[in-house]
DNA sequence: GCGCGGCTCTATAACGTTATACAGGCGATG
DNA sequence: CATCGCCTGTATAACGTTATAGAGCCGCGC
């Protein structure tokens, strides 16, 4: 099949080991022989057989990014950056779809892909601290996004409570008093939903506004349709909200749709804020005010940390890194001038 | 590190080869020994080292899906299905981002990943028949989506001309006369753009409408922003269009945004149609009429064909498969009742 | 002149798997 | 009873790479 080290060695009249050393610089090689080998490599068009290399090295060169939904634009944007970063560091990133399924998350955590991948970046939604702590697999693991804290693994995330707080603060600042939250999972195990509700409650309290449980809408999932349904229910209340904060941009966009169908004006009647800053929200009508996490920072940091662990490098600094976020004001909460 | 065949063999008191045969059924094994081996496998928790297997078999178990933009929801939806299908057939799918770059497409075609993957599904946008024909790599290749015809490879796509034709026909049917097209690349090499423009022209001709080159807007890329800019330019014409057909849903959504900003009503002043049926268009305001390709069929077919080729199976039927599409009427062209 | 260290390079043993060639046993067939 | 073929199982040679041990050579210092 392909050209192997042996072919190069014969061509250049040197030993196998020398070719290997030229190719990956493990030990120095004399200038003259180096050139001869290099020439043979170029002429025959050699590229190493990765399966063999990995077998020998005990690594596969693959890392997995496991996310709950590939379709969610937030994760798609994150994935794109992560793929590029990994490629730049000599690794191939494969996407793993957990479909927000607890069993799938547990399987990955337990090492179902142990022999396929060198490391795992996981965005957990249905598992918590306990499950992570009791894992036995020794594949390096980096957690992103959700609230699994105090575990001996790298964890990259925004401060969910603070982000939520900032969103509500903004709605308060533009004069809203009946602020709803869409995307709670009261009995559920979605960690970040709890955290975002907590931020919501804290911000209300800080503003001296009452917490009304009827304004906290639970959803089964976190897509556009879920947001739309929840908004419809909220509008059916005797005293509907004058502002809504969605668990994420998709939910918020679903809410926008429900408001449009019901003939309400945004932001005049109801203001809307989301989280994620997906591109869709920059082109919706109205455009969507949102909390923008630094996706580039999250993705790159996660990949770099993981690879550092794989390669046994010392990683400075704390395990948990909170990446910055900022509020981006758009039409759905009224432009600053108006 | 992990448990190897050898460990199992020792534990069960049989030879290496027998364990291998139990594990992957290459040759029959007696019932008694099979059970003993199976027990050892279960007890020690063995799973095969894929690098070694791949080295020996000459395959990696990886296939790549190379697309021009991971961020485009159309491709994200496609990718999700493809990943699942591939996993079901025992392969891992890795995403490769060509970023619509000609060099990247050529490199992949030329086999830059030869040693990493067993096969490639490519959505070409900057290369054509010639480039595919002159490729020397022997890795199985399946083309999807764009117009590279008459090449000795599997090719899964919708009939771009017919799809475009159907969209225009619909706009004609609801009484529009000045129909614009957004997303042409006159000098460019985007094949499907040419085909969709052709369908546009044919449908105009069939309806007895004149072709006006000023109503064909060229764009550099095919995202929301490109659609928005092009629409703005079209609105600046002395006699603006009363309908717009976008190269894809993203472009159409950008057009919707430009129309909203300029204060035009959709569909009363301008009707809008896209292609792809991405979920975003079911929640935009107004919702977007679109040509819906069968994404599940495209993705699954592409993966199945590729794997069949990799495994040397005979594949019945023609190389080129045109998958069905249908028009989905939504608010942006007026509901059927109104 | 001898020994020693440094510099290049070579030979070779793994890594864990699968496919091939082969060996032994046992029943059926002539 | 010899022969053939089938059924189980074994031994072993690859697959292509990298790391380790060591061989040869040269110059330097004693």
Automatic annotation (TrEMBL), chains A, B:
Spans through the membrane: none
Domain HTH lacI-type residues, every copy: 3-57
Keywords: DNA-binding, Transcription, Transcription regulation
Protein name listed in UniProt: LacI family DNA-binding transcriptional regulator
SMART domains: HTH_LACI
Keyword Transcription: yes
A single MF term (Gene Ontology): DNA binding
PANTHER family the record matches: LACI-RELATED TRANSCRIPTIONAL REPRESSOR, LACTOSE OPERON REPRESSOR
Organism whose genome encodes this protein: Micromonospora parastrephiae
